[in-house]
Structures are given as structure tokens and as C-alpha cells.
Amino acid sequence: MGLEENLPNGVLLTSVEKLVNWTRKSSLWPATFGLACCAIEMMTSGAPRYDLARFGMEVFRASPRQADLMIVAGRVSNKMAPVLRQIYDQMPEPRWVLAMGVCASSGGMFNNYAVVQGVDHVVPVDMYLPGCPPRPEMLMDAILKLHAKIMDEPLGAKRAAELAESGYRTPMVPSSVKFAPKSKQLGALQTTRNQDVPNYLEPGSEPKPSLPQIPTGGAQ
Prior knowledge:
This protein has helices at 3-6, 11-25, 38-45, 81-90, 102-106, 136-151, 157-166, 175-178, 182-194, and strands at residues 69-73, 96-100, 127-129. By secondary structure, the chain is mostly helical. The model is unreliable at 188-203 (pLDDT under 50).
């Protein structure tokens, strides 16, 4: 029970919520947790060529008690699953999990008795990143999308229950639009509105392929 539970939902609490979420997303500390070949790409993202420190993730923490982001990079075996859960339980709240690669997301090519078919059977996952392995640019894009999700997280159980009742969901916009300069953002958003983009979350809204027009007249 904190102070935010006793305050009414007003401008003050909303501003505090945004400030707290901004500090959390600007200082994510990932745990040093590489399981398979996807860990090579994760380590590359921290190298000078990609420089993950630009987003407040300068040092991978060796202790789970000093980390708040677990990047599960690679497949998880059944013997490794209890260790994964133990490390997750040792991380302080709030904490987030990113499943990096198709093996961590759904088992990938290892569809057998020894590999967990998706790390979400062991820990709750906040962001799924496909690829075999995903490039460092894809990992950085997933982290930026996780930043957008963190910015919309409620502060306190009371606020979380109200958002759950309203059915609010974090809008997942392309990072190339969201993090572009303001002038390019406006142009991209206007282009998107004019193209009548379907909502892929609704059933039956898949775009229909357009057939090319074949001329019927003779050669000119």
C-alpha cells in the first residue's frame, strides 16, 4: 500500500505516473543472461557499432538483484527452466522479460522433449522478438517498443484495475514513425491515414490482393 493508492486519479497522479515510467524506461538494466546463439547478437548490440548505451542500457548486470530486464536469448532446456525462474524471482519489481529469437518465443526448430516450447511457460513475457537469430537492429527496435509499453504502465494496483476495466491497450506503432523527427512523423501519419490501412486485430480484415489490369485492346 503506497501513497498512490490513496490519491484520487487526477492531473497530479497522472503526471507522477508519466515521470516514474520515464525514469524506468530510461534506465533499464538488463541481466547478463545468454543461453544460445542469439546471445552473440545481444552482445553485438552493446558493442560500439550499435551502442545500446544510447537508450540507458550501458552495463549488463551480473546480479539479478541489480537488473530489471531479462533478455532470454536462445532456447531454454527443461533443465535450465528452473534456473531461469529462480533468476526471475530474484529480480526486483518492476521487471520485464524479452524473449529474443524464435527458440525463446516458441521453441523454434527444437521441437523435442528437451526444450521448452516457449519461455512464456516459465516466466511472463512482455515482448516477443522473432528471428533466427534476430539482428541487433531488431533487438533495439524491440527495446524501443518495450519503452513505449513501460510509458503506459499504471502506477499502483488501483490504477491498473481501472485500465483493465476500460480495455485500454498500448498502441504498437512502428518505431521508424514513433521515434522519427516531428516533421517526418506528421508526414508519415498523414500518409497512413490516407491509405485506409486495415486493422489486422479484427477478424476478416485481411487485405484482398489486387489483380493487375490486363489490356484487352490491340497493340498501339
